[in-house]
Amino acid sequence: QVQLVESGGGLVQAGGSLRLSCAASGSIFSINAMGWYRQAPEQQRELVAVISSGGSTNVTDSVKGRFTISRDNAKNTVYLQMNSLKPEDTAVYYCNVRWGGLFNLASWGQGTQVTVSS
Prior knowledge:
By secondary structure, this protein is an all-beta fold. The chain has no helices and eleven strands. The strands form two sheets. Strands 2, 4, 5, 6, 9, 10 and 11 form a seven-stranded mixed β-sheet that branches. Strands 1-3-8-7 form a four-stranded antiparallel β-sheet, with no helix packed on it. The model has no long low-confidence stretch (mean pLDDT 96).
């Protein structure tokens, strides 16, 4: 069984910062890409940022220059540093982990609420 435990969400004023963490545990092996998605009310889930096993990153245009994704392979943990937050960043943030080598499995975190007030 694989568990992804997220933390770090909360309420912050516009211009503030938050750091999300997602730790993977259990029967997980050969972790590949790790990423963060978000879903605002009545909107589709969208990719925010992804980081490969080698450390290459990709960040969606709306958060470039403000959000940074990183990972600690020794801890099976992915982070999302969010700076200069805007009200439009308000959403539930989910981590996603691709693992299992050739099995190409995917697991999701339970989601953490980020609310940015104006």
